[in-house]
Design goal:
CATH superfamily of the largest domain: GAF domain
CATH class of the largest domain: Alpha Beta
Largest sheet: 6 strands, antiparallel
Distance between the termini: 111 Å
Number of helices: 11
Strand content: 15-25%
Amino acid sequence: MTDPVPRLPALVEAVLCVGSDLELRATLQHIVDAAAELTGARSAALDMADPGDAGLLEIRTDRRPAAGPDRCPHERPDGSLGVPILVDDAVFGNLYVAGKRGGPFTDEDEQLLRVLATQAGVAIGNARLYETARQRERWIEGAAAVTTALLSGEDAADALLTVAERARILADASAGLILQPTEESGMRIVTAATPDGSADPGDIVGTTITPGSPLLEQLLAGEPVFIDDSATDPRLTTHVRHRFGPNMMLPLQSGGRLIGTLALPRDRGGRPYSAAERLLAAQFASQAALALVLADARHSRERLAVYEDRDRIARDLHDLVVQRLFATGMMLESTQRRSAGEADAEVHEILGRAVDELQSTVQEVRTAIFALQQPPADAPTTLRGKVLRETAGAAAALGFQPSTRFTGAVEALVPEPVVGHLLVALRRALASAARRSGVSRIEVTVDATRRLPDGRAGVRLTVFDDGDTGGGRREDEGTGDGDTEDGDGRGRAGTTVVWQSPL
């Protein structure tokens, strides 16, 4: 056997070069370059036993054989030389050299290659530890950033998008998806984050995993699912699966509560997820789930505080303001009756107007109390609530809140079909008022105590605004069964819209 000492300086230099970098890809590139240099090979390559571990399929030198096409490591030309690289007593990959200049590879070349492979195993182990530490640091920082963002007051939809987007970046995935259980015992994609920032790339949001899938049973049970190729895995049945390759589906679960599933698919043909990446992503999902639960609890406390304040204000309005206004109205009515026989008709008229204004004020305060007692996030189910929702929506365009009054037992007297027609008329009247100039006041009245000319019970909607019309103007509408009689708004400059219908 040839003495390897003459090439010892080159071997020492190669070993030092191999261990000079802690970045894994750079370390692997140093190894194949050193192998080609030591053995005088025209090309060298290193393929990995677990591509996901290094994030690469193979590393090759820039040099190629002088003649013939390039060959992958599994199609070795005659006369090639290869040795395994062990990291922690496990085969990390195989180092190959080919195309020896001046003849075949010698025992000396093999011995040098084995020494290099031994040192390479140590260098790869160090680089792997460094890369794992960096990955762990990034995932921990990402989890901390998500927790901070969620606890800063984001709403539910923004919170889920924050989790999906941060996880997608950390996992180097093509998408970050959040699935949540459906009422039909399935799971639906409710949030999607992609590199281009589109909210719903290719109709992904809304995609549902229907009941009966073994995969669904695992997800609903809060178990992680790891998929090598989404496009070919028979457990996936969604129409978007063909777009993706390797995938992790991780439970967002905290304290026994399943919030949903975090899916992190990569593009088709992308590298598989390593064991370290799976572990770090699962830990991130657990931390994100806890942050989501804490954020939801915080929002619930804030909503409860708002409800308590609204209830307190409503009680104060009812117990103090309404009662005082009612008592004042009673006093004025009594004074008006006593002055009926006196000669001063002007005083009598003034008192009458004051009583009417107080009654109107009481009605508006009661409407405000009703609005305060409604949960703002819930869709209104009563006529009062629906009317108040329409006026609140108009307030955004008008710049002020229209006043609203209800007369009679509107909830009990007005049937649902009539409610629908009334709301359409109200919406049209408010939109018309918003288009007029000079509108600073709008009064909406719903009266369920009206009688139509034919004697039938009816409901009347009156919408008055003080906009510029060149004089008082009146617009009468109806369902076709009722009549429109003059009343509210007469004698006032502005526009009065009257709509009524039989009950």
